[in-house]
Every structure is written in structure tokens, then in C-alpha cells.
Amino acid sequence: MENETLTEIRSAVDIVTARQRGRALALDLGFSGGDVTLIAAAISEVARNIVDHAKQGQIVMHRIHGKGDPGIQIIATDEGPGISDVAQAMQYGYSTRKGLGVGLPGAKWLMDEFDIISHVGKGTTVTMKKWLR
After folding, report:
1. pTM here?
2. Residues 6+ apart with CB under 8 A from 75
3. May I ask the CATH architecture of the domain 5-131?
4. pLDDT in tens, 84-94
């Protein structure tokens, strides 16, 4: 795809790399500073979940077009343990690691579109989109 960036996620260093690549792509697409920060934060949240729960995965980012507006799509995939109760995981305050419980719901809130598919024992895919206004 056009402007596609793939980042393997295995460590905190990879989270930083994915964030930087997401920021660079968002800026290249014409997003403003505020939206660039939101996109980078959402990437951090899903990348952190990969490191903490699945140990490894990948994030693919690319330019998309919809209804005349360009945007960015971020797809985070892993082959980790999966999420047994996605609805529960998407509730603010729910945390499996004694955190604030804003990871996945926070990422959803930061982006325009958010979808999560998870199968226990097979892994999780999170797809997020942000549209340029």
C-alpha cells in the first residue's frame, strides 16, 4: 500500500520506533500537531499491549482514502493469548496489569474508528483510523 510502514514490536524500544514512524506518516499526510500527538499516543497504547501481553507482534501503518478525505490506518497484530472478554477489556478502568485501565478504551477515544478482533489462544488484531479534516 501507499506509504506503508511495518514495525515489529518486541520491546519498549520498538514502541518508541512505532510511535516515531506514526508521527512521521501523520505529519507527511498533513495532520496537525494535536492530531499527530493523538495518533502517536494511540500507537503507544496498542504497542504497549503487544509487549505486555503477547510479547511480540507488528504494527502496520499506511495512508487511506475515504469519502474524499485522506487518513491514516494503523493495524496492530499479535499471536498472543488473545482477550477472553473484549467488552470488559474496552471498559475504562479495567486493567490486567494494575494500571489505570485506559489502554484500549483510550486508544479508541483518540482515533476516529477503532475495531478489535481477538481469539483466545490465537491473538488479537486492532485496526484504528484517523481522518484528516
Report:
1. 0.91
2. 59, 60, 61, 125, 126, 127, 128
3. 2-Layer Sandwich (3.30)
4. 988 888 887 65
